[in-house]
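Practice problem 4.
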């Protein structure tokens, strides 16, 4: 390695910044007595250590001339090693830059990666003198230049947003039409067949499972498994390199941008599932890979009783300390980078309650929420919370600030319980269908703040929800102890695959009911990628470590899978066609210009539902009548009401058929558009007028529309 010199440089920006002539390095550490920049040759072997002698406000910095993109680097930090005081500096451990734009290699597990001497009692923590350079991943200097060629952000309004949750690799790994070298990559996700599928469905946003650089922890590696989902972040600025078809230094950065560009050109937004609540360094017995060795006490929440131990609100061994300015700055800088440099359109925050905690309790006015609210860039993108964590009072559905949408766990539980468990009541289902006003309206929130979901990556797929009553996670190597036990599923009386045609038909109807409820509800629908194809995980409800056919999409569709895909397409087409199904505001129950209410709940005999009937435990069938005035003329939404169709949604939760008297048509016939009792989900009579009444089979949903223009 040629002789290298360090010039003064600048303390900002943090990370490694190439200016065309060299690279500026800046690292924040209040715990350090000395910081050494470590440069490596192309294969990560030979190391040259350069002291960063300049320091300002705990930022250590220096400029290395003639260094170019592709250079490998990391840090060593010398300081106090005193676990009892929350200090874990160890210069024998190579440390990743928290601001690294790219990371090369993966941990080679062994004793060298631990800052203490493994095998001793946890209370001892003797300092390890074993060097970790050969076993540790390295950071990569990157060139951020990229020609977006004018590709514009779609900026889809919330009321028109349909989110598709997918894994970058799993989406195309087995896709026969994607070129083999691109399968499972960012480039594969951006390929013409992949985008064509999303466009065919009518998806407006993809929500990608974590793409921040992450680690497969030692336990999984020893089992021959990986952290497939990626909820084990170690680099909050670096796209995960294993998803890049381009394996050159910095190739993942360029390829990720190309993917975003292609999706934007197709009118599809990109939302990242981000994990800022914890890191891959685990608890007090975890490895020293980055934050722990740089400034453990600044980055992590430590136990007030004994600072040797981490506070764990995440179930992953540690919790990042968002009350620390260092951590808050890291998260804000990371978010801004992904929006401004990488082009993304929003974020879903994993275990977001952990980010909004003060000293202990969740606070919707915390520094984290305030920092995002005042930021002129971040406050304009889509912000979605997973509104819970494992700490005290962590379940906060409906408790987030304005400007935030939330995964609505109450929606999921109500819909599953009603259709699969035959539990709950029509009252609760009606609330969820109307955007969960009982949860969001009192705080001045909007129906679109409710991210409606029935299935997501964590849990059963839709096919498995209706084929298994119990989890089957043996392949995970945890003796089936992992994963949710209370799934609210229904197998039709037989666990797993069956040739019984009656059971198959019952399961298929259940899936249609669940999907129709999801896509016909007010709020923002989140579709689990693969559910439209009938994807199964063979009863595994926690496939976090299954990088194989259990998790990958199967694109060879059975006739049943083809029917499911066509049904989902039709539902989403109706959602686009009928603005009353995606209102930006809650229903008022007040009459419009022609005297009709925006929504009227009716009994099967056609009469308006008396308020007291909502408390009737025997109520099993009800109709929601949406007038043309339910299609809100909202400037942000752009939907006019003059051509909107009245909509009638018939819900029969009972086992027996229910005959519904339809509202007077007044010259325009009612036409059935969806009927979940049929194998296709299409009405048996096609699009023909249905007359004055309609029979909804037991356990079914029917959607009818009336051509309002004939009344003008």
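Answer key:
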């Amino acid at each position: 390695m040629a002789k290298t010199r360090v010039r003064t440089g600048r303390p900002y920006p943090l990370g490694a910044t190439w200016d065309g002539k060299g690279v500026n390095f800046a690292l924040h550490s209040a715990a350090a007595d000395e910081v050494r920049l470590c440069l490596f040759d192309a294969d990560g072997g030979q190391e040259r250590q350069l002291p960063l002698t300049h320091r300002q406000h705990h930022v250590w910095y220096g400029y290395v001339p003639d260094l170019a993109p592709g250079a490998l680097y990391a840090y060593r930090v010398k300081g106090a090693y005193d676990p009892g005081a929350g200090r874990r500096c160890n210069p024998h451990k190579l440390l990743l830059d928290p601001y690294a734009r790219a990371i090369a290699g993966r941990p080679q597990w062994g004793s060298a990666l631990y800052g203490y001497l493994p095998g001793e009692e946890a209370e001892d923590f003797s300092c390890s003198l074993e060097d970790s350079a050969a076993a540790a991943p390295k950071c990569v200097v990157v060139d951020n230049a990229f020609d977006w060629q004018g590709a514009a952000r779609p900026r889809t309004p919330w009321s028109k947003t349909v989110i598709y949750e997918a894994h970058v690799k799993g989406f195309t790994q087995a896709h026969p039409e994607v070129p083999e070298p691109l399968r499972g990559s960012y480039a594969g996700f951006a390929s013409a067949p992949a985008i064509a599928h999303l466009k065919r469905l009518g998806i407006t946003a993809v929500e990608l499972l974590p793409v921040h650089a992450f680690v497969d922890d030692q336990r999984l590696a020893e089992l021959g498994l990986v952290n497939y989902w990626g909820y084990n972040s170690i680099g909050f600025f670096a796209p995960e390199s294993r998803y890049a078809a381009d394996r050159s230094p910095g190739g993942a950065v360029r390829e990720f941008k190309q993917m975003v560009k292609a999706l934007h050109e197709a009118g599809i937004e990109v939302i990242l599932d981000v994990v800022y609540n914890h890191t891959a360094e685990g608890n007090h017995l975890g490895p020293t890979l980055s934050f722990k060795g740089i400034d453990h006490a600044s980055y992590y929440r430590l136990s007030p009783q004994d600072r040797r131990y981490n506070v764990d609100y995440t179930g992953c061994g540690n919790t990042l300390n968002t009350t620390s300015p260092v951590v808050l700055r890291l998260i804000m800088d990371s978010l801004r980078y992904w929006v401004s440099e990488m082009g993304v359109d929003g974020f879903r925050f994993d275990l977001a309650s952990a980010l909004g905690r003060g000293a202990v309790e969740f606070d919707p006015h915390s520094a984290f929420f305030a920092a995002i609210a005042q930021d002129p860039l971040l406050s304009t993108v889509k912000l979605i919370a997973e509104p819970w964590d494992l700490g005290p009072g962590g379940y906060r559905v409906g408790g987030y600030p304005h400007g935030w949408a939330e995964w609505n766990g109450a929606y999921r539980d109500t819909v599953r319980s009603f259709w699969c468990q035959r539990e709950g009541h029509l009252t609760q289902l009606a609330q969820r269908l109307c955007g969960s006003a009982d949860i969001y309206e009192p705080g001045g929130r909007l129906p679109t703040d409710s991210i409606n979901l029935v299935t997501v990556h964590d849990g059963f797929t839709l096919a498995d929800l209706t084929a298994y009553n119990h989890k089957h996670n043996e392949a995970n190597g945890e003796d089936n102890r992992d994963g949710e036990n209370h799934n609210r599923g229904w197998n039709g009386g037989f666990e797993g695959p069956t040739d019984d045609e009656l059971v198959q038909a019952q399961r298929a109807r259940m899936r249609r009911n669940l999907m129709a409820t999801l896509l016909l509800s007010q709020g923002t629908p989140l579709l689990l990628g693969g559910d439209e194809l009938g994807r199964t995980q063979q009863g595994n409800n926690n496939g976090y470590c299954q990088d194989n056919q259990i998790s990958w999409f199967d694109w060879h569709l059975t006739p049943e899978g083809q029917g499911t895909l066509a049904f989902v397409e039709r539902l989403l087409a109706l959602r686009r066609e009928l603005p009353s199904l995606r209102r930006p505001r809650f229903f008022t129950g007040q009459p419009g210009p022609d005297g009709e209410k925006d929504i009227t709940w009716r009994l099967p005999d056609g009469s308006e539902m008396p308020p007291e009937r909502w408390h009737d435990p025997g109520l099993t069938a009800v109709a929601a009548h949406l007038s043309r005035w339910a299609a809100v003329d909202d400037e942000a939404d752009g939907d006019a009401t003059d051509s909107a169709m009245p909509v009638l949604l018939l819900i029969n939760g009972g086992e027996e058929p229910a005959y519904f008297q339809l509202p007077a048509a007044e010259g325009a016939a009612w036409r059935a558009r969806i009927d979940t009792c049929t194998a296709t989900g299409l009405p048996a009579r096609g699009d023909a007028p249905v007359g004055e009444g309609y029979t909804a089979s037991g356990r079914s949903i029917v959607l009818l529309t009336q051509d309002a223009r004939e009344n003008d």
